[in-house]
Structure formats: structure tokens, C-alpha cells
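User: Please fill in residues for this 361-position structure.
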């Protein structure tokens, strides 16, 4: 039941402190401050191939940044509908990982079955633990988001990201890339995410203040760098799905290779700009947008420096460890889509033309 909430999506957005906490506890030990390294032999693999669709694909891309950075594990992420039909070249020490809320998505399941038939080790990050993917994969990596009713995925996405980030820490430890002090720091950061997600949930008022303009737009651009790039694409997908506004997520550094031509007074740009080691680069991209008259909504911590440029509006996000920024920034991204859809009066929980689970291709 929706309880005090107007839509299941709103309820599920607000459940994220709990669903992320619950999921993290599967992979990390809060008492000892360590990662559980025994779910798979991370030292025996030399590559990860993630397959997924839609929002789960973006969660996989966020996971990729963490597996490569923290564990030195080459990681590819591919849309399952492409992977399954293009005869991909895989090596025997590759771990194939399916990421899926339902565990039933036809293309993802077919890709997983194909990888298994190639003799690869397989794992499934799934929210429905009795699903086909959970049964097919050699290793089940559960998420604990609970049942997700809204067609637009929210809490399942952050649970997937939480699981993948925690697994990347475990992989880094198992492969000798992360020492005990760094492990403690990263585990602590991850366990801070439920509190910071809860803090991000209080951003509703400042987000409602910008959706009036957003709801009028025909096109919206989402920009980010690093793990904020896949989150930008997730933000664009969310906005498309429930508000029917055309949106695109781009790596901020790609701006001048094409999308900057779209910028005009009517095309808002939403920037995901945590204070990480690429903040300055993102900031200068935003100034380029503002200089061309494009309205900018910059989501960044309060202590981030002010940018010069007219038309840059700021929404303050909680300051956080860079590892968990995709979890914390997922909240404003979801709220933006949600309030824009409410403003437009669309059917938030049952968007037109979409099904919750895509079990046919
Ligand atoms: O159940 P799955 O995670 O495999 O579903 C994958 C996509 O169909 C799903 O994420 C879809 O993109 C959502 N509607 C996104 O909000």
C-alpha cells in the first residue's frame, strides 16, 4: 500500500535509506568494518562482463567505474539485447554478471544463459531472489530493495549500485589492491550512505522550485563525469519514462563534441557535480553552457565554489565521500523526474507504453 504517499514511486524513493542499508549488510560487516570477500574467488577472474537493460545497465556502468578503480579488474558493461546477438569474444577467466531487478528480463536472461554455455563463471545481481536469473547464475548476489511496484525503477537501482560498490570493495581487498585502512574507510563511507540518502530526501522543496521550468521544456540535458555520467543517463531515462520529456544524459566532457549545439534559452541542463577530483572540469563545462544562454541547474554540495555565469541555479546536495556520490545523487535525480511528472499530471506509476518486466524481446 502507498500509505502517506501519493504514488508508489514516491514511496519507493523514500524507502531507499532502508533498502540500501539492508543491501549493504549483505556484502559488508558493519561491526568489523570489513567487506565479505567469500562470495566468489575474485583472485581467479581477470575480467568482468556485466549485462543488463535500462536502469540496471546504468547501475552496471557505475559498478564498472568501481571495479576498475578499486580492484583493478577490467570490466565491460553491455546492453543485453546487443550482447546476445553480436557473438562477443569472451575469455575463460571472465565473470559474467547479470544485473536485473526482476531477474526475468528476456535479453538479460538469454545473455546470462549464453555466458554459462561458454563455460564462464556467472553471477546475478537480482532483486527477485526466486527469479530465472537467480536460478541460472552460479552465484546469487541479492539486492534487498523489497518489491518494487512503480514501473520507473528507483530503489532497485540504488540497491544494485550499493551491491556493486560493496562488491568492488570486496574484490579490491581479495585482489590485494585495498589495504586494511582503506577498506575501513570505504566500508565506513558506504555505511554512511543511508543517512546521506535520507538527508538528500529533504531536497524536495528546492527541487520543486525548479520543476515548473523543467515541465515546460521539450528537451533536457543531464551532464556528469565519472560515475555521475551513467547517473546522468539514468536521470534522462527517468525523466523520459514518466514525464515524456525528451532528455539525454551526456558525459560533460563530450559537450563540445556535439550536444552544445542544442543549447538555447529553452533547453535546461542539469549537472550532477559532487566535489570530486573532476569537479573543476564539470564546472567549466557548465560555464560554457551558461555563456550560450542555457539555463543550468547545478546539483552540488553547498561548500562547492560558486560559478561565474548568469543563469546557473544551484541545488544543494549533501556532501559525501566520492564512492557513494552515485547513491546520494540518485535521490535528486529521481525527485526531479517525479515532481516534473506530477507537475505535468502524467500517470507516474504506470507510464504509457511501458511494462514493469520485459519478458519478451
Ligand atoms: O527487471 P530489470 O531490472 O531487468 O529491468 C530492466 C529494465 O527494463 C528496467 O530497468 C527499465 O529500464 C525501467 N523501466 C527503468 O525505470
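Assistant: Residues filled in for all 361 positions:
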Amino acid at each position: 500500500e502507498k500509505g502517506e504517499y501519493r504514488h508508489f514511486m514516491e514511496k519507493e524513493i523514500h524507502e531507499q535509506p532502508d533498502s540500501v542499508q539492508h543491501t549493504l549488510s549483505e556484502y559488508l560487516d558493519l561491526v568489523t568494518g570489513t567487506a565479505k570477500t567469500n562470495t566468489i574467488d575474485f583472485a581467479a577472474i581477470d575480467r568482468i562482463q556485466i549485462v543488463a537493460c535500462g536502469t540496471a545497465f546504468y547501475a552496471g556502468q557505475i559498478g564498472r567505474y568501481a571495479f576498475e578503480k578499486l580492484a583493478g579488474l577490467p570490466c565491460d558493461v553491455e546492453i543485453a539485447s546487443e550482447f546476445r546477438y553480436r557473438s562477443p569474444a569472451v575469455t575463460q577467466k571472465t565473470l559474467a554478471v547479470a544485473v536485473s531487478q526482476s531477474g526475468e528480463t528476456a535479453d538479460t536472461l538469454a545473455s546470462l544463459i549464453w555466458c554459462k554455455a561458454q563455460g564462464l563463471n556467472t553471477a546475478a545481481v537480482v532483486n527477485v531472489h526466486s527469479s530465472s536469473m537467480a536460478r541460472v547464475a552460479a552465484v546469487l548476489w541479492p539486492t534487498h530493495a523489497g518489491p518494487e511496484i512503480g514501473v520507473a525503477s528507483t530503489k532497485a537501482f540504488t540497491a544494485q549500485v550499493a551491491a556493486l560498490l560493496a562488491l568492488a570493495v570486496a574484490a579490491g581487498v581479495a585482489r590485494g589492491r585495498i589495504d586494511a585502512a582503506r577498506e575501513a574507510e570505504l566500508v565506513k563511507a558506504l555505511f554512511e550512505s543511508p543517512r546521506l540518502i535520507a538527508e538528500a530526501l529533504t531536497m524536495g522543496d528546492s527541487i520543486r522550485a525548479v520543476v515548473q521550468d523543467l515541465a515546460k521544456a521539450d528537451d533536457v540535458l543531464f551532464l556528469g563525469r565519472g560515475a555521475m555520467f551513467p547517473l546522468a543517463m539514468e536521470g534522462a531515462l527517468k525523466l523520459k519514462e514518466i514525464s515524456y520529456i525528451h532528455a539525454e544524459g551526456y558525459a560533460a566532457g563530450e559537450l563540445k563534441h556535439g550536444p552544445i549545439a542544442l543549447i538555447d534559452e529553452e533547453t535546461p541542463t542539469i549537472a550532477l557535480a559532487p566535489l570530486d577530483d573532476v569537479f573543476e572540469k564539470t564546472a567549466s563545462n557548465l560555464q560554457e553552457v551558461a555563456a550560450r544562454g542555457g539555463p543550468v541547474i547545478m546539483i552540488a554540495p553547498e561548500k562547492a565554489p560558486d560559478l561565474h555565469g548568469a543563469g546557473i541555479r544551484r541545488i544543494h546536495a549533501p556532501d559525501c565521500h566520492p564512492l557513494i556520490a552515485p547513491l546520494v545523487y540518485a535521490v535528486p535525480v529521481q525527485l526531479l523526474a517525479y515532481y516534473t511528472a506530477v507537475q505535468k499530471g502524467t500517470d507516474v506509476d504506470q507510464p504509457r507504453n511501458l511494462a514493469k518486466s520485459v519478458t519478451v524481446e
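For context: The chain is about 45% helix and 15% strand.
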